[in-house]
């Protein structure tokens, strides 16, 4: 009679170990799935943050480009004004027959240079 008790005890013990292993594997897989989901969410948040930073940086770059273009156009206008003042001074010098020594810089050219900044 002791043999059937031993067999029954072995079956119960094997069932308990098998159930424990099944539950452990199920819990492990659920934990792994939860970690994968957390990682995917963290990655998604990091990508969104990086995208927002990239867009903000692009906006700053665009604003700086526009400011640079405006400064360049202003500089071109100032250069054109200076060239026009120089040409006008050359024409005035060519038209006047003043034998005296002319000033180093005419008042018109001095004013044009003054507007640009000395």
Describe the structure.
The chain has 118 residues and is mostly helical. Helix 1 (2-95) runs antiparallel to helix 2. 88% of the residues lie in helices and 0% in strands. The longest helix has 94 residues, at 2-95. It has one domain. The protein is built from two helices and no strands. The model has no long low-confidence stretch (mean pLDDT 85).
Set down the secondary structure blueprint.
Elements: H1 2-95, H2 107-116
Helix pairs in contact: 1-2
Features:
118 residues, mainly alpha, 0% strand, rod-shaped
Shape: rod-shaped
**Would you report the number of β strands?**
0
Classify the beta-strand content into a percent band. under 5%
Class from secondary-structure proportions: mainly alpha
Number of DSSP helical runs: 2
Mean pLDDT: 85
**Fraction of residues in helix:** over 70%
Largest sheet descriptor: none
Radius of gyration: 44 Å
Low-confidence stretches: none
Question: Termini distance?
Answer: 117 Å
Helix/strand order, N-terminal first:
HH
The total tally of domains equals 1
Kindly summarize this structure in a few lines.
This protein has 118 residues and is mainly alpha-helical.
């Amino acid at each position: 009679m002791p043999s059937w008790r031993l067999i029954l005890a072995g079956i119960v013990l094997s069932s308990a170990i098998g159930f424990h292993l099944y539950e452990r594997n199920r819990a492990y897989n659920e934990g792994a799935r939860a970690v994968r989901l957390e990682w995917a969410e963290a990655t998604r948040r990091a990508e969104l943050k990086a995208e927002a930073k990239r867009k903000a940086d692009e906006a700053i770059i665009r604003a700086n480009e526009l400011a640079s273009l405006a400064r360049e156009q202003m500089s071109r206008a100032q250069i054109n004004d200076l060239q026009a003042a120089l040409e006008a001074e050359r024409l005035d010098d060519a038209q006047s027959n003043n034998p005296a020594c002319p000033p180093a810089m005419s008042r018109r050219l001095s004013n044009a240079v003054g507007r640009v900044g000395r």
